[in-house]
Amino acid sequence: MEFYNANGDSIEKINTDSPRILIFDSGVGGLSVSKYIENFFLGADVVYIADNKFYPYGNKDRNLLLERIEDLLEQAVQIFEPIGLIIACNTASTLLSNSFTEKLKMPCIKVLPPILEAFQISSKKNVLLIATPNTIDSEYVNNICAKLIDDKFIFKKLGLTELVNFSEMKSRGISLETNDIESLILRSMTKEEVDNVDVVILGCTHFPNIKDELKYIFKNVKEWVDPAYDAVNSLYQAINQINSQKGIQKFLFLTEQSKVDNFTSPYEYSGFL
């Protein structure tokens, strides 16, 4: 597997002596994580890998995905030598085992939907998880659902890959029609169900990018749960103090050269090279 920079050049290493934090996602979702990394790790470079060749992950075969992600991460860690890794993609995070991440021999944080925590802050005990189909159907989510046996818990799961596409469109400056998103959601939920939700878990790092559109639809929601901040904080706690005084450099690498031109604009806007 090869990694390409924004110019479409194949890259085997980067020549900096600063410590590096690696972010991995299928698309732009990890940008919602990178903004927190820049606040926590003032002396570290940020290396962002987007698997644009295999985007989107949300509806791909799980076994095929897992094999690809493990291979990609092993190569990325070997090439870029990070001091820590955040798997920003919720779908990838639910697929990867702890035994695999331990083999990488560095702090590795998975971004996972905090379902039980969401119920703790829900006054109506009515929580909605918006994620990709693979995250919704994951063993991780199913195991937590098994714990929600009390009738007082109302837990709805909405798995829509189309929302990932809406987020990617918005990140490239394409205007979204909120009515289109609402119509999509109402295919899976009734208007009454939408109105009764009081906590929404953004179970995909793409979704903070369309939070304003979702707020317009879910007007009665009191809390929007985004696990990105807690994931970065966990990585910060796991890594010793970084002594580098250099400013942050941000590097973007993709997995398919042919898609570089129409894939990089959101990253350039966020300061990635």
What does this structure look like?
This protein has 13 helices and eleven strands. Helix 1 links the parallel strand 3 and strand 4. The chain is an alpha/beta fold. It is 39% helix and 17% strand. It starts with a strand and ends with a helix. The model has no long low-confidence stretch (mean pLDDT 91). The chain folds into two domains: 153 residues, Rossmann fold (3-Layer(aba) Sandwich), CATH 3.40.50; 112 residues, Rossmann fold (3-Layer(aba) Sandwich), CATH 3.40.50.1860.
Helicity range of the residues?
25-40%
Biggest beta sheet summary? 5 strands, parallel
Contiguous uncertain segments of 5+ residues: none
Strand order of the largest sheet: 6-5-3-4-11
Portion in beta strands: 15-25%
SSE sequence, one letter per element: EEEHEHEHHEHEHHEHHHEHEHEH
Second CATH tier, the architecture of the largest domain? 3-Layer(aba) Sandwich
How would you state the average pLDDT, rounded? 91
Specify the overall morphology: globular
| Spatial gap, N to C terminus | 21 Å
CATH fold call of the largest domain: Rossmann fold
Decide which structural class fits the backbone: alpha/beta
Number of domains: 2
CATH class label of the largest domain: Alpha Beta
* Count of helix runs: 13
Count of DSSP strands: 11
Give the radius of gyration: 18 Å
Enzyme class: isomerase
InterPro entries: Asp/Glu/hydantoin_racemase, Asp/Glu_race, Asp/Glu_racemase_AS_1, Asp/Glu_racemase_AS_2, Glu_race
Organism: Photorhabdus heterorhabditis
Catalytic activity: L-glutamate = D-glutamate
